[in-house]
């Protein structure tokens, strides 16, 4: 898996750290999880959020 360095808003990083700890994910894995949900939601706007979240 290729990786890249990107600049992220500090609030996003802090929220991802908090949520990641609660869900047993690292901060980068939490941001990746959110990105996947966002990608699926944009590609399938007719699908409910809960369906997309559970599909991942």
Task: Describe what you observe in this structure.
α1 (10-22) crosses α2. The protein has a domain at 21-55. It has helices spanning 10-22, 27-43, 49-55. It has 56 residues and is mainly α. The longest helix has 17 residues, at 27-43. The model has no long low-confidence stretch (mean pLDDT 93).
Short description:
The protein has 56 residues and is mainly alpha-helical.
Cα-based radius of gyration, to the nearest Å: 12 Å
Largest sheet features: none
Shape: globular
- Total count of strands: 0
For the terminal residues, how far apart are their CA atoms? 18 Å
Arithmetic mean pLDDT: 93
| Class by alpha and beta content | mainly alpha
User: Helical proportion?
Assistant: 55-70%
What is the helix/strand order?
HHH
**Low-pLDDT regions:** none
Protein name: ParD-like family protein
Pfam family, one: ParD_like
Which descriptors apply to this entry?
56 residues; mainly alpha
How are the SSEs ordered, and which strands pair?
Elements: H1 10-22, H2 27-43, H3 49-55
